[in-house]
Design brief:
Blueprint: E1 5-9, H1 14-25, E2 29-34, E3 48-51, H2 57-66, E4 71-74, H3 81-86, H4 88-108, E5 113-119, H5 142-161, E6 164-170, E7 172-174, H6 192-200, E8 207-210, E9 222-227, H7 228-243, E10 249-253, E11 258-260, H8 261-272, E12 278-281, E13 290-291, H9 296-301, H10 311-323
Parallel strand pairs: 1-2, 1-4, 2-3, 4-5, 5-6, 6-10, 7-9, 8-12, 9-13
Antiparallel strand pairs: 9-11
Helix pairs in contact: 1-7, 2-4, 4-5, 6-8, 6-10, 8-10
């Protein structure tokens, strides 16, 4: 594939920085647009950087006018499920309205390739596992609803403007680049693996297990963890598909393997060589017992195959990043 110029919105975030690194290594020219409300400028591996917001239509017009953008990759969503319940308008404004502003600019400037970071949150409580793309939608939070709204918006934009998109529904993104130069840094942190590793590092007193009486082998919730570098490899394949005039599509991205909360804690304890204090707490409302993806469609149509299948390898890559502080 020839060298492409890719606008990466939210490129200073966790997955965005890994995406920029992968684009550079593939010989592409990434332009990162990030308002730095959640992202970290110092972790950006290279390419061009513009500080700004996708809600700023004038700035978007300037970017599209000054560059020949081949495609846009969207990582600029707010992701805190709990906060989305408490402040839903903030999430609808950032995740839906701002994305509409970005899509309007793309239509004005005739940029017709869009890759969207969606989420398994569009499914809600699973009716069956592994979850495939035909599972019914029933988001249990405004965050999940905003992802589904954008997916529907993209479907309408395809019909109205010929704007082609690939939506990638992540399950549990985890791990860090093997270089240890970039990794997961959220504030506040809400993801299980970094919280466990913060506990191992002495930055937290303990890790809570919310519910120990689920119908799973050890009573704790089971989740599907997919390495961040496997996620970005799927984006590169999606980009190639769109540049080859693929139709719009939606894919689940997961490992296809489920690991319980206790398994993750025990794995982290072995890798770090440290005891990890645990507090058992009641179940959280809306936490399904098992969330595991079927990624058969992505494997068949995109020829995507996750290469980080081992929980040990995923956790070890994250620990290498956390040790660097």
């Amino acid at each position: 594939m020839k060298s492409l110029t890719i606008l990466v919105v939210g490129g200073c975030g966790y997955i965005g920085t890994h995406m920029v690194k992968a684009l550079l290594e593939a010989g592409h020219h990434p332009i990162t647009l990030d308002n730095l409300s959640k992202g970290h400028r110092e972790l950006l591996p290279g390419g061009d950087f513009i500080e700004g917001d996708i809600q700023d239509g004038i700035l978007l017009d300037k970017i599209f006018s000054s560059n020949t953008i081949n495609a846009v990759m969207h990582f600029a969503a707010l992701i805190e499920v709990g906060e989305s319940v408490q402040r839903p308008l903030k999430y609808y404004r950032n995740n839906v309205a701002a994305t509409a502003t970005l899509l309007e600019a793309m239509v004005r400037h005739k940029v017709s390739k869009f890759i969207f970071s969606s989420s398994a949150a569009v499914y809600g409580e699973p009716e069956y596992t592994p979850i495939d793309e035909n599972h019914r939608f029933s988001p249990t939070s405004p965050y999940g609803e905003t992802k589904l709204y954008v997916e529907n918006m993209l479907k309408a934009c395809d019909g109205a403007y010929g704007l082609k998109s690939i939506c990638l529904r992540y399950f549990n993104a985890a791990g860090a680049d093997p270089s240890g130069a970039i990794g997961e840094r959220h504030n506040p942190e809400s993801h299980l693996i970094p919280l466990i590793l913060q506990t191992a590092a002495g930055l937290r007193d303990n890790i809570s297990i919310f519910g120990t009486d689920y119908p799973t082998p050890d009573g704790t919730c089971v989740r599907d963890y997919v390495h961040v570098n496997d996620l970005v490899s799927a984006h590169l394949l999606a980009l190639e598909a769109l540049m080859n005039e693929s139709a719009s599509a939606i894919y689940n991205l997961g490992n296809g393997n489920g690991f319980s909360v206790r398994e993750v804690i025990e794995t982290a304890s072995r890798i770090t060589g440290r005891a990890i204090p645990v507090v058992e707490a009641p179940r959280r409302p809306g936490d399904p017992a098992v969330l595991v993806a079927s990624s058969d469609k992505a494997q068949k149509e995109l020829c995507w195959k996750p290469s980080w299948n081992s929980l040990e390898d995923i956790v070890r890559s994250a620990w290498n990043w956390h040790k660097k502080g």
